[in-house]
Structures are given as structure tokens and as C-alpha cells.
Design a protein that fits this description.
The protein is α+β, with helices and mostly antiparallel strands. The protein has 15 helices and 34 strands.
Length: 758
């Protein structure tokens, strides 16, 4: 049997065709002898565009359609030996037109419900023809994409397993407006890029193809014909799952997780974050306990964090990233949790487990930049697309990455929808936005002549401002109870001011100035601290300009900055004592708290993503294990006392919640201040950052409290301290001090923080 003379069997249709031929001359012309003949040949240019992946509408030439002479079938199956059309009463082999093209003109009046039997050397498979299906993307989706307002963009773009026209398969869609053509390829086509060209859906820039029979777990990428005719193979920007790095293919996935956190989700928005207890344990999931999967982490992390009393965890970026040494801050898969530890549903299981333990989840999010990997977003369709076309706006000078073009509506949509995606699809309770300052300033890390002013001649990136405002407004509108947090290292006005008042609209902001000032004080010898006394008090000058988080984050314990306890001078006892006193000061200070993993037990070494925290320091076989366990015991008690004292969190962001008692005792290295709850009940915090015991130290207190009792003392023996305490409740004396009519006579342990409550 030669390719020029394919076998044909037309059982039900052939007699009908003969009958119709007897009735009308037109019907006789549609039923030539032999039954099947080659379909009309493609124009050479159209054939070339199809085979070279430059055709914008392959559905116009592939599949089945009625012509004057019958129904024409055309199939593109590279490496196939034969292709046979199979339908009810029909089994006909197509002509081999070369280059993987097969065609035939059948004596039929209408297109039947058909399938294709494709034979390769040693294999034969029956499939639905992808080019018989209508677009699986709705007009409303395309309209919203065109407007840059599709707030659930992941439902319209990417790979989505679905049933379409009664057939199961996967719809592939990608935005590539500069492409001459796009093809989807993967393990389902043995990575041959020719077989599955996609169609362009009008002016939207979206390309689409429904592939029947392709389901979850399939690997895929997009083969894109650039404007210059060259090709590039790209991972899906909207992929919801990826291969484990260093492999880079996207993975078809769908969620089957059944959430069990209804109680948590219903309650989480009852109190705004800036008026609620909010202490955060920051960690790098890949190295907290190296080698654990998401599900194994779900067995260990919730109980550990709950025991320590933190209200939230914050994950360093979990979106897919090719280079582990970037810690997740150079993202290529913005919609995919990293596959290093499991599937997206496995990550959902981890979040669910934390919620059921009463712990909120914040994820770091990186909309400031992306890496230049040639298989990812950079010049995605042959021209700058996600990045700005002006290199002075796109090239990030610090990290060798590219900055997003926030002025392009589709790019803003990609990022805004991504923030919503993490909140809706993974139930996260907050997103901490990385490197906000690098987004806000056109001259960030750029010298004279290296940046272009905005339309008003200023240095502000107005496109980024509008993007951040849109992102915050959208997240707060769509996701009740979620908080957004800015890592913004400058004095930009209104980071946490509502967008309708001209602010950026964040809920909280990292207080980088407070962190730098207080750590500088901590690093000085006690005898020299008096010259830096107001490093500890300066934060109160601007404490109410924003809603602040006080961060001791991963950035402060790497790259030669040393771990928190190692920043402190003195011997091992003094280092630990100062570490404990500082944490007591931090937990009592206005603002929310964030502490990076390992610092809760005074790890002395810097953090490394290759091995994580030094858990061996807590092992009973280590001689100094009790020293480290004592610090962890203090952190546990700090969190419990903090949650139990509304004075420490109800009025964090208003001046009425704080009052200095002693801010100028530089010679003594002593600080004292009051915190007030909404009902006026106070908490007194006193810190002694000198290594000597101060007895009979007089501290002014407000009237109306009969007795004060010590509720926390960082010098307790069980924390590793010397055990100097104010064991009995203290009665105020009518002796003025620090401008107050009453005062307490306290014993201040060395290098310590004390809390007192009525």
C-alpha cells in the first residue's frame, strides 16, 4: 500500500453518498471514484509558516472543514508512518503530504465526530484531533486580559486540565504578543516542537490550544517564533508547578486538596494586624530542617512554632527559583511553589496544618525583579515584554536581574493577580513584599546619567507607585484578613497609609532604621554605650509615622554580619545576657516582632542555606546546650507574656500607647517606658544594658496602681541568667521620679530587661 493510494473503508456513508449522487449533479461531483483524494494543497508560504511555527491560525488549515468537494482533513503529525481518520462508519487513511502533514478530501456533507489513529514505527495510538475544538478561553477572559484587570489571571492563562466539548484534556494559553507563532511541546510529543502550533486569539496577544488526552503531570514548554524568525523554548510564566531544579520544564497540575482551616479563615480578619498580637518566626523552608518535604515539615513546624508562642511564620520566597543560593529572591515561576519539597497541594497541606495549629502564614513575594535565564521571562517573546524596553529602566544594577515594566497593564495584571493567587489558592495570611525601595526610585543604585527622570522631572517611579497601590487595594478587597507588609528601607511617606489617602496601602512596614540603630548600640562595649544611648530611643521619634514591624531577619545574620548573639561584645555569659535583654526590649517596644530562625536559641554562627540552623546546640550531649535552651525558653515566655498583655499590641500605632519613663540615663545604660492597652491598663518595661546590678533604682510610675509585680525577667536562672529578681510585688512610694509623683525602687539585674504589670 503506497502513500499515494491510502486504504479506504466508508461503510455507512458510502451508500448514502451514492444515493445523493443520483439525486443531484452537485452530489455526483462530491463523490469521486475511490472515495478519498488528497485535500487541496496548501500555498507554499502558508505551508512554510505552519511547519516553521510562524502561523497565527493553524486551526484554519489543520483539522476538518467542509469544502465544495466534501470534507477536507489535514493533520500535522511529525514522524508518523500513517494517519487514519476513524468515525462511525468511516475508517480512511490520509495521504502522506510529506514533512509530517497528512490530508484527505472525503465525500461527506458534514464533519463527523471523528478520531485519529496515528501509527508510528512499532506503536499506534488513537487520539482526538486538537484542531477540531473551539477556543477554550472565554471572550470575557480575553477582554479582562486586554484591559489588564483579570484578577484571577491564572484561571485564563497557563495549563489547565479540563473537559472541553465533552473531552478531557489540557488547555494551554500563553501571552506572547510579539511572537510570529507559538507551539506547545512536551513529553506528550516527545519534545518535538512542530506537532502542536497554537492559535492567536485576536489582538489580545494570547495564544491557545486545547490538547485532548494530556493531563496532570505532563511536562511542557512553549516554542516561540520571535519577530526575527528565530525560536526560543520557554517555561510557562503562569505555570502552577515545575520540574525540580535544575530541570526547567513546566508541569500540568490541578489542586485536589480539601481545606480544613474554615475556623481559622473565618476568624483571621476580626482584628486588624496593627491592633493585634503579631510576632513572627521567619524561616527558610528548604533549610529549617534540611531534607524535609512540605508534608514532613507539616508534622514538625506547627508544633515547634506553637510551643514557642509565635503568632505567625514568615517563609522566605517559596515561588520557584532556579538558583538555591538566591534563597528564592530570584524567581522564575511566580505561580509555582518550589518543587524541591513537593507539589503545590503538599504546600497547601503545610499551610493548612499551620492554620489548624493557630498559626498564620506570611510568604515573601518578589515583584521587584526577575533573573535573565534564557528559558524564563527575559525577552520572553523576542522583545522586552515583562521588563522595560529602556535598559536604564530594566537592568537592576545590584543583582544582575531585570526589573518589571510596571507601566504596562498586562505586566501589572500578571503581578497583581499573582499576589491574589497566593492568598486565594494557598490561603496565606500575608505577603511581605521584598525590595520595595528598589521599585520606588528610578535612581536606586544608579549614578548620574544612568537613570531617566519621571514625567515631572523627579526620581520617583510613578508606574511602580500605581502598581503597589493597585496590588494592595486589590488584595485587601478580595482577601479579607490578609495583611501586606513592605520591606521599604527609606523614609518614603505613606507606605502604610490607605491608597484612597494617597498612600501605598500596605498594612505594615519593616522598620529598617530601628533595626540598624539598635544593633549598632548592641555592638558597643557597655562602657561605650553611653555615647550611643539615643540609638535605642531615636525610633520613637518616628514610631507612629507608619505601622511598623521590628525585624531581626535573615539579612542581618549572613554575609559577615554575624549572628545576633555574636554581634555583642564580652564573654559568652555577657553575650547571651545582652541577647536576652535585647529581645525583651524588642518585644516591649511599639511595633510587631520578627525573629529569624536560629536566633531563638542564640546560634553563634551565621545562617547558611546549605545546612540551616545549628540544632546540635540544643542536644543534651553538648556541654553548653542549657545555655541555648535557656534563650529559647525566654523567647517562649516573651511570646506568651506578649499575647497576654494587650498593652503591648492594641495601641502599637498610636502615641497614646506609649510613654517614656527614663530615656536619658546614658551613664547608667538604663531605659524605662510604659505601654498602655486600650482600656488604659499599663505595662512597665525597664532595661539595663550595663553588666552591673543596680539596686534601689528609682523609676517613676503612674498613679492608680496599688502593686506592681514582675512578670518577666530576662536574668532568671532558667534562661541562663544570674537570678537577680524583684520577687515580691512592689508598692509605689510617694516620691517623685522622672516627673511622676510616684515611683518604684527596683533591683535591676545586669544586662537585663524586666516587665512589670499591676
Amino acid at each position: 500500500m503506497s502513500a499515494a493510494q491510502p486504504s479506504t473503508t466508508v461503510t455507512d456513508e458510502a451508500p448514502a453518498a451514492e444515493a445523493r449522487a443520483k439525486r443531484t449533479p452537485r452530489a455526483r461531483r462530491a463523490a469521486p471514484a475511490g472515495g478519498v483524494r488528497p485535500a487541496p494543497a496548501l500555498h507554499p508560504e502558508e505551508r512554510a509558516r505552519l511547519l516553521e511555527g510562524r502561523h497565527h491560525d493553524p486551526h484554519a488549515v489543520l483539522g476538518a472543514r467542509t469544502l465544495r468537494g466534501g470534507v477536507a482533513f489535514r493533520v500535522l503529525r511529525p514522524y508518523a508512518r500513517t494517519v487514519t481518520v476513524v468515525a462511525k462508519g468511516l475508517r480512511a487513511e490520509l495521504h502522506d503530504d510529506g514533512d509530517g502533514l497528512f490530508s484527505g478530501l472525503f465525500p461527506l456533507r458534514t464533519v463527523p465526530d471523528y478520531r485519529l489513529l496515528v501509527a508510528y514505527d512499532g506503536d499506534e495510538t488513537e487520539i482526538h484531533d486538537p484542531y477540531r475544538f473551539l477556543p477554550a478561553v472565554g471572550e470575557l477572559d480575553l477582554h479582562l486580559i486586554g484591559e489588564g484587570r483579570h484578577e484571577e489571571l491564572w484561571t485564563a492563562l497557563g495549563a489547565r486540565p479540563m473537559e472541553h466539548q465533552g473531552v478531557s484534556g489540557t488547555r494551554f494559553t500563553v501571552w506572547a504578543p510579539n511572537a510570529q507563532g507559538v507551539r506547545v511541546t512536551g513529553d506528550f510529543s516527545c519534545w518535538d516542537p512542530v506537532a502542536h502550533p497554537m492559535r492567536s486569539l485576536g489582538a489580545s496577544g494570547v495564544w491557545e490550544l486545547f490538547l485532548p488526552g494530556v493531563g496532570e503531570g505532563a511536562l511542557y514548554k512553549f516554542d516561540i517564533a520571535r519577530p526575527d524568525g528565530s525560536h526560543t523554548l520557554r517555561a510557562d510564566p503562569m505555570a502552577r508547578a515545575t520540574e525540580v531544579p535544575p530541570s526547567t520544564a513546566s508541569v500540568v497540575t490541578a489542586s485536589h486538596h480539601v481545606w480544613q482551616d474554615e475556623e481559622w479563615m473565618a476568624a483571621r480578619g476580626r482584628r486588624p494586624a496593627h491592633q493585634a498580637p503579631f510576632s513572627v518566626y521567619e524561616l527558610h523552608l528548604g533549610s529549617w530542617r534540611p531534607g524535609l518535604s512540605y508534608r514532613q515539615l507539616a508534622e514538625q513546624l506547627p508544633s515547634y512554632v506553637k510551643d514557642l508562642g509565635f503568632t505567625h511564620v514568615e517563609f522566605m520566597p517559596v515561588a520557584e527559583h532556579p538558583f538555591g543560593g538566591s534563597w528564592g529572591y530570584q524567581v522564575t515561576g511566580f505561580y509555582a511553589p518550589t518543587s524541591r519539597m513537593g507539589s503545590p497541594d503538599d504546600f497547601r497541606f503545610l499551610v493548612d496544618s499551620l492554620h489548624r495549629a493557630g498559626i498564620g502564614v506570611i510568604v515573601d513575594w518578589v515583584p521587584a525583579h526577575f533573573p535573565r535565564d534564557e528559558w524564563a521571562l527575559a525577552e520572553f517573546d523576542g522583545r522586552p515584554l515583562y521588563e522595560h524596553e529602556d535598559p536604564r529602566r530594566s537592568a537592576h544594577p545590584d543583582w544582575g536581574t531585570l526589573e518589571f515594566d510596571y507601566g504596562r497593564k498586562e505586566v501589572r495584571n500578571f503581578l497583581v493577580a499573582n499576589a491574589v493567587y497566593w492568598c486565594q489558592e494557598f490561603h496565606v495570611d500575608g505577603i511581605r513584599v521584598d525590595a520595595v525601595a528598589s521599585m520606588l526610585y528610578l535612581d536606586y543604585s544608579r549614578g548620574e546619567g544612568e537613570w531617566v527622570p519621571n514625567e515631572h522631572g523627579g526620581r520617583e517611579n510613578l508606574d511602580a507607585v500605581r502598581f503597589l497601590q493597585e496590588m494592595n487595594a486589590t488584595v485587601y478587597r478580595r482577601c479579607p484578613g490578609v495583611v501586606t507588609v513592605a520591606e521599604e528601607s527609606t523614609a518614603w511617606d505613606g507606605v502604610t497609609r490607605p491608597t484612597d489617602s494617597g498612600g501605598l496601602g500596605f498594612g505594615l512596614k519593616w522598620n529598617m532604621g530601628w533595626m540598624h540603630d539598635t544593633l549598632r548600640y548592641l555592638s558597643k562595649e557597655p562602657v561605650h554605650r553611653k555615647f550611643h544611648h539615643h540609638d535605642m530611643t531615636f525610633g520613637m521619634v518616628y514610631a507612629y509615622s507608619e505601622n511598623y514591624v521590628l525585624p531581626i531577619s535573615h539579612d542581618e545574620v549572613v554575609h559577615g554580619k554575624r549572628a545576633l548573639v555574636s554581634k555583642v561584645p564580652g564573654d559568652w555569659w555577657q553575650q547571651r545576657a545582652t541577647h536576652r535583654a535585647y529581645l525583651g526590649f524588642m518585644w516591649a517596644h511599639p511595633g510587631k516582632q520578627l525573629l529569624f530562625m536560629g536566633q531563638e536559641f542564640a546560634q553563634g554562627a551565621e545562617w547558611s542555606e546549605s545546612h540551616g540552623p545549628d540544632w546540635w546546640l540544643l542536644d543534651s550531649s553538648y556541654t553548653a546546650a542549657d545555655d541555648h535552651r535557656g534563650v529559647r525558653e525566654l523567647v517562649r515566655d516573651l511570646n506568651r507574656a506578649y499575647v497576654a498583655a494587650p498593652a503591648l499590641w492594641e495601641r502599637d500605632s498610636v502615641p497614646e500607647g506609649f510613654a517614656w519613663v527614663e530615656a536619658d540615663a546614658a551613664e547608667d545604660n538604663v531605659y524605662a517606658f510604659l505601654r498602655y492597652a486600650a482600656d488604659g491598663s499599663p505595662l512597665l518595661a525597664v532595661c539595663n544594658f550595663s553588666p552591673v546590678v543596680r539596686r534601689q533604682y528609682r523609676v517613676g510610675v503612674p498613679e492608680g496602681v496599688a502593686l506592681w509585680r514582675e512578670v518577666l525577667n530576662s536574668d532568671e536562672e532558667r534562661y541562663g541568667g544570674s537570678g537577680v529578681r524583684n520577687a515580691q510585688p512592689l508598692r509605689p512610694e510617694r516620691e517623685p521620679a522622672q516627673g511622676r509623683p510616684l515611683s518604684l525602687r527596683l533591683t535591676l539585674p545586669p544586662l537585663s530587661t524586666l516587665w512589670f504589670r499591676p
